[in-house]
Design goal:
The protein has eight helices and five strands; from the N terminus they run E-E-E-H-E-H-E-H-H-H-H-H-H. By secondary structure, it is an alpha/beta fold. It has a five-stranded mixed beta sheet with strand order 3-2-1-4-5. Strand 2 and strand 3 form a beta hairpin.
Length: 237
């Protein structure tokens, strides 16, 4: 019996609901997105041998955790925020959002929409994470492509970052998602992903938050990078 694991992802937590082919809930849970929480979530999910993950916003806030799962040989499909919202209104009679309700709606959306896009390994995401690790862990200045670097550890200057950020913000406010190979750090990427996920009615507070987060990237005050588990071994390479 194949189960569907619906997920409502956030920066620091993920809420899941596991349903069977009839739509009956088998298990629910809320987990941190740090290594301990992610491992605990995998253990809970792998109790069900035949499974598929359905994650809302795999081109936005859910992208990071979706690709962690794909790298760990899990099957992941992308559920758009619009589709899960339609299911949420249909099943609850209103559009009220809570994490458990959203996870349930994502799972039902996947159950009722068999032709959703499957998520595959993203080499750009790995290159982006590699650049973050290089910037966070190397005492030496980051090399540029002209010095023989392949590009994955290249670090743009502030002017290039500002131009990149403005373009990324414009795309995010249009609901077009956020690219991961831009040189923007994890905090700025997440803030932009939140903007994109809120489309088509993006509140000004999210745009202001994205600009404030990017300003902290420029002055170096953003927090430490949360490195994906599949790249953590590169710290010592």
């Amino acid at each position: 019996m194949k189960v569907i694991i619906g997920m409502d992802p956030h920066k620091r937590s993920a809420t899941i609901e596991i349903i069977d082919p009839t739509g009956t809930a088998l298990a629910t849970g809320r987990y941190g997105t740090d290594n301990a929480g992610y491992s605990e979530m995998l253990i809970a999910a792998r109790k069900y041998k035949d499974r598929v993950w359905a994650i809302e916003g795999c081109n936005g806030i859910g992208r990071h955790i979706a690709h962690r799962l794909v790298h760990d040989s899990e099957t992941v499909i992308d559920v758009s925020a619009k589709l899960s919202a339609q299911i949420r209104v249909f099943t609850t009679g209103n559009g009220r959002k809570t994490d458990p309700v959203d996870a349930h709606s994502v799972a039902l959306a996947a159950l009722r929409s068999p032709n959703l896009r499957q998520v595959h390994a993203d080499s750009e995401l790995i290159a982006w994470a590699c650049s973050l690790i290089a910037a966070a862990n190397s005492a030496a200045p980051a090399p540029t492509p002209s010095t023989g670097c392949t590009g994955c550890c290249w670090k743009p200057d502030d002017q290039q970052l500002k131009s990149t950020f403005e373009g990324a913000l414009a795309r995010a406010t249009a609901g077009e998602g956020v690219r991961t190979d831009s040189g923007l750090d994890f905090e700025t990427f997440t803030a932009l992903a939140n903007v994109s996920a809120a489309w088509p009615t993006v509140p000004p507070t999210l745009i202001e938050a994205a600009r404030a987060t990017f300003a902290r990237q420029l002055d170096g005050s953003n927090g430490a990078v949360d490195v994906p588990s599949f790249l953590r071994g590169r710290r010592d390479s």
